[in-house]
Amino acid sequence: MNDHIQMTTTTDSRELAQKIANTLVEKKLAACVQVSGPVTSVYEWKEKIETTEEWLCVIRTTRGLFPAVEETIKALHHYDVPEITVLPMGGSRDYLDWIDEVVTS
Predict the structure, then answer these.
(1) Is 10 within 8 Å of 41 (Cβ atoms)?
(2) What's the longest Cα–Cα distance across the chain?
(3) What digits encode the pLDDT tens for the residues 6-40?
């Protein structure tokens, strides 16, 4: 059994979020990427509070693919420091098996 993870990243456009999603799935680096938005992000950047409309990508993959997913996001992204977060993921055995099947085929 693989260690399953859920990763997230945000972008400033739906088009870039969709490009990231399509690329990760096409390269079999993720079984599924959900794109939602717009969402409002409030954060500090360069000592200033910013409020930005962004698009959220929720990525389902395995821990072993994290380096390749991170590299792909960074290559496509234009933020100086793109959000790339990861959480361990559990779930139904059928769903987790499906993730394994997709990313290892």
Answers:
(1) yes
(2) 46
(3) 999 999 999 999 999 999 999 999 999 999 999 99
Domains of the chain: 4-104 (3.30.70.120)
Question: What order do you get walking across the sheet with 85-88 strand by strand?
Answer: 32-45, 48-62, 4-11, 85-88
DSSP 83: -
Q: Does pTM top 0.85 for this prediction? A: yes
Amino acid at 66: F
Amino acid code (one letter) for 2: N
Instruction: Give the whole-angstrom CA distance, residue 105 versus residue 33.
Output: 17
Integer Cα distance of 86 and 75 in angstroms? 18
